[in-house]
Structure formats: C-alpha cells, structure tokens
Amino acid sequence: MSLTMRWSTDLVTYFASSYWGMAPDLPHDAFEREVDADPKPFFDRMLDAAAEVGLSGIELAPVPGGWVNALRSYGSAAAFKSELDRRGLQMSSSYVLPVLLKAVLDAPDAPARREAERALHDDTAAHAAFLREVGCSTLVTSTIPRAEFSDVVGVPAPAADFDAPADSALLAEIADLLNGIGAVAAAEGVHVAVHTDAYSLASRTADIDSLMSATDPDTVKLCIDAGHIALDGGDPLAVVEKHSTRAPVLHWKDCAMHLPPHTLSGPPMARHDEMIKYFRVLGSGDGVVDWRAWTKLLDRNDWEGWAVAEIDMSPDPQREILQGIDFFNRELAGDRHRL
Fold it and tell me: Which residues fall in a coiled-coil region (predicted)?
C-alpha cells in the first residue's frame, strides 16, 4: 500500500512579523496584539496563502492563529468552514497550548484543582464542538516541560534536571488528564493528539511509550513532530515505527542538531526564538532526520493521515512550504515502492 499524502500547514508558519510588513524584530506579544485587534484580515490572508500554494488543508495554531480568533473572524464555525470550502481547503487539525492542563497540575489544593480541571474540560468541549462543525477530528495539544527552565537570560538550568528520567507518577497523572480531555472531545466525535514538543514529557521515546500505553487509543492519539523530537536529541524514526498507526497528523520538519534544553533560558518566547533557529525545512539538506527511512516506515505501517509542512515563523512561508513538498515528491515519493 502506498502513502496517500494530504498536505497541510500550521498557521504558525505565517507568524513572522516581517511577512506582514511589520518590524522583523517585533516581539511576539506585540504581534499577538496586532492580530487580536482585528484577526479577520490576517486569517483571510493566511487562508488565501494556503490555497495559493496548493495545500489541501490548514492546522490552526496557538494564539493568535487559533480557533478562538477563527471564530471571532467569521462569527461562527459554519462561516469559517465556508471560508475553507470556497478555497478548497479542509482543516487537518487545531493546536492549543497546554496552559489549562498545566494549571491543573499546578493547583495548590483539591478545590483549586477541581476548578482548574473544570476549566480544562469546558475549553476542550467548546474547542471540540467548533472542530466538529468545521469537519475536523483532531485537537492537538501537548504536555508540560520535563524540567524547569531558568527564567534568567544567560543562566542555564541544571543539565541533570533534564537528563533525569521522567517521574512515573507525574506521567500517570498527565495520562489521566489526557484521558479526561480525550473523553470530553470524543463526545463531539473528536480525538486529542499529543504533540511531541521538544523538552516536554512527550518528546523522548520512553516517555511517549509510557503515555501511549496509559491512554485510551481511541481518544488519545499522537502528533509526531520529527523536528521537535530530534531537537531534544530523540529518535523520530523509533517513534514513527512504533506509534505512527496512532498518529493522524505528522509534522514534517527537520532540525540542524540537538540543542541541549538546559542551555535555553529566559521567558518562554525568548526560548522559542532560540529553538526555531535550529529548525529546518523538509529537504533543506542540513537537517538530521533520515527522511527516506521515515517515509519507508510510514509506508510499512500503512500510515494514513495529514502531513503538515510547517516551519515556525517562516520569513518566506510560500517558498518554504513548496520546498518541503517538492522535496517529498522529487526524492521520497518513489521510495515508497522500494521497501
């Protein structure tokens, strides 16, 4: 059986401020405020761009390119679906940061935890209802960092904290929370997929194995991001080989090399800005992922799903999306039949 590729991109690909004629060094929170003030022109242009480059779908991004601003832009899920339909697009998936999940874990006492979990479930239910109306079945989220980063710029965290094995009780607690939101989403015909964020409790092979074994395979899936796994020093091929049958969405991006997590410091967006310097477009030539082996493993596992060609905050999104897809068509598509 050969792979049937459906290409999508995450809207974070269009988040570079320079793409919008803003200052290239504009802080992300300032960019976020610009979009939040009137998101519709931004969404119109991103959807137009995705259609122009020949994609079949889009993945909604974290704020300001997420489902809430999509709803604000067009007024209803049905209206948003109409905007997708008239451009020949579908929605592959929708990503939400695990802010509310972390709030549950950080709750200081039982009443606070119940309230935080209620907020998590309410948000998941609303998000899943939106996805159902749009015709999308995958709500992507992630877990928490495996250790604490240093908040002081230039001051590294202890390397041993990130090198230590994950706490099994914490992994079990997170699995319970994922099962909870998976059940909530399932009521709307949607499943949750855990994104393999670098340095999270879902980026290293052993942790992914633990979470997948402790969660319901019908309601909790996996969103395998090759670049994030490789950035954390992991093995994306091992994850694909074992878990791609449970992955309705794959992020096809590369990275230049392993970036030790303890070296990252400062606020979250400062760390993110450093991380994305290491990400590479599929087929860039200087990445570490073996894409031929990746593709063969997917073919061997009869993988079906969405392939997301994305690169965070690309300075030239149209060119880079096409570069990745062209590399697949030119260099990888023929390999599918030589296993």
Answer: none
